[in-house]
Design brief:
Length: 352
């Protein structure tokens, strides 16, 4: 998402490419329609897992074994491009490029940086892929977790290296230049992007009905094996209890949840979330337990869910309403939770 004076990660450490988000339950639906050929794929990538159900029509020629191999290869390629845990990944090489030196990058890396810049501008810097130095400082990156919380001086030093505006993108030559000594970390968008990559692969194979879950982020299209729209359950944000708080259904798009209950640490009784505010350089401390967001793509949903989580329950809700975002908020209130949803989210609600 404890012994005093030590950082002990709860449940899991931050994943090699991006930080963990809340899980979804995939809910079944009833229908009398006979199922078509169904592929069940699963594996590991980006330090987490993926689970896929795809419904193939008679015109789909690829076998389940061949499709599994294609999925694994596509995700391996994404990880090699975007991981900060792989020393020779394309992103790691870019982060070590001298300041001011342009570097030609792959279409995938350029594409995700363009999308990241757009969302950074849209959220006025709340979403910022250059927050990596601060993430690392707090022990949620590839560096070894520290034994104590960083000092204010260390936080300010790391913050001096944050600023998405220092990523200079040359659309004509597909070049990226670090305009300052920044460190790019795609943790808050890469899982969603990976799910979109597989969605594109399926479309190329003629598969129109699928649900792709990668580390909790979802790319969805069409209907389930029984011919009914996919139904998703939003999980209660606590490790002590499990269950679905709200069911939703979408025909096509991406869904992502951002929250802190699966990835945090405690020291001297203080709980620290893995989600970092790029303006303060510190983990978020508000009462928003999780936020689920539906968007056009999984990558957009992934990044926007992170941004709204940083904003907090009221500012995040106001931002969602003002900008027509479909968002569902679970907020801590004492020992229980309250929920609220933006008007745009209401269209996706279904009964459990």
């Amino acid at each position: 998402m404890f012994a005093a004076h030590r950082f002990i990660p709860t449940i899991i450490k931050a994943s090699p490419v991006l930080l963990v988000s809340l899980c979804f339950f995939i809910l079944s639906a009833c229908s009398q329609q006979e199922p078509l050929r169904v592929f069940k794929l699963e594996g590991r990538t980006m330090g987490t897992t993926y689970h896929i159900t795809a419904v193939a029509g008679v015109d789909v020629s690829v076998s389940e074994t061949a499709l599994q191999m294609k999925v694994d290869k596509a995700l391996e390629d994404v990880n090699q491009v975007m991981s900060t845990y792989i020393p020779d990944s394309e992103l790691s090489m870019l982060n070590h490029e001298p300041v001011g030196s342009p570097r030609v990058v792959s279409p995938q890396l350029f594409d995700i940086l363009v999308l990241s810049r757009k969302i950074s501008a849209f959220t006025e810097g709340v979403f910022d892929v250059t927050v990596g130095p601060v993430v690392n400082l707090w022990g949620f990156g590839p560096e070894e977790m520290k034994e104590k919380a960083p000092s204010e001086a260390q936080v300010q030093q790391a913050l001096a290296r944050v600023g998405y505006q220092h990523i200079v993108l040359d659309d004509v030559h597909q070049q990226v230049t670090r305009g300052a000594d920044i460190y790019i970390d795609l943790s808050a968008i890469a899982k969603g992007y990976g799910a979109d990559v597989i969605a594109n692969l399926f479309r190329d194979e003629g598969i129109a009905n699928y649900i792709i879950e990668l580390g909790g982020e979802l790319a969805i299209s069409g209907t389930n094996p029984k011919g009914v729209p996919w139904r998703i359950g939003i999980e209660q944000p606590t490790l002590a209890q499990t269950g679905v708080m709200q069911a939703i259904s979408i025909e096509s798009g991406g869904i992502a949840t951002s929250g802190d209950y699966r990835n945090y640490f405690e020291v001297d009784g203080q709980r620290y979330s893995h989600t970092i505010n790029p303006f303060t350089g510190r983990p978020i401390t508000h009462t928003l337990a999780s936020i689920t967001l539906v968007s056009r793509t999984a990558a957009e949903a992934d990044a926007l869910a992170t941004a709204l989580n940083v904003m907090g329950p009221q500012k995040g809700y106001d931002f969602a309403v003002t900008n027509g975002l479909a968002a569902y908020f679970i907020i801590r209130e004492g020992e229980s939770f309250i929920t609220k949803a933006s008007p745009e989210f209401e269209q996706y609600r279904v009964n459990l």
